[in-house]
Amino acid sequence: GKPNRVGLVFEGIKLQPVEIFGQKVDGLPPLSVDFTWPQNFLAQFVPGIDDLGSTQNDPDALGYFDIEYLDDELLVIKQQGGGRFALVKVNNYDP
Question: How far is Cα 47 from Cα 67, in angstroms, rounded to an integer?
Fold first, then answer.
């Protein structure tokens, strides 16, 4: 494997609306989607399904990125297709 490679597994999403048409909507509940429920449900009935389609040990599988630079303030990652992202730490986020 590569020491600077990180694998991604998306288990779900949670969306919290902040504004709709310029109006604050703090009281609305978040929308959540669990991506693991079909596999977890089927694992009760089908032994070994947890490993079905697993690419965790494949260094060239989709869902990986390479860390090119990392310090306390900056993270630069390179996608498999060659795209790069720079994530900068901020002290305050005000939507």
Answer: 36
Rounded to whole angstroms, what are the CA distances from 36 to 10, 42, 58?
8, 10, 20
Tell me if 83 sits within 8 A of 76, measured CB to CB: no
Is a pLDDT exceeding 70 seen at residue 6?
yes
Which tokens sit at 92?
A: 């305050």
CB 65 within 8 A of CB 80: yes
- DSSP state string for 19-37: EETTEE-TTSPPEEEESSH
Separation CA 38–CA 12 (nearest Å): 12
The predicted model scores a pTM of: 0.46
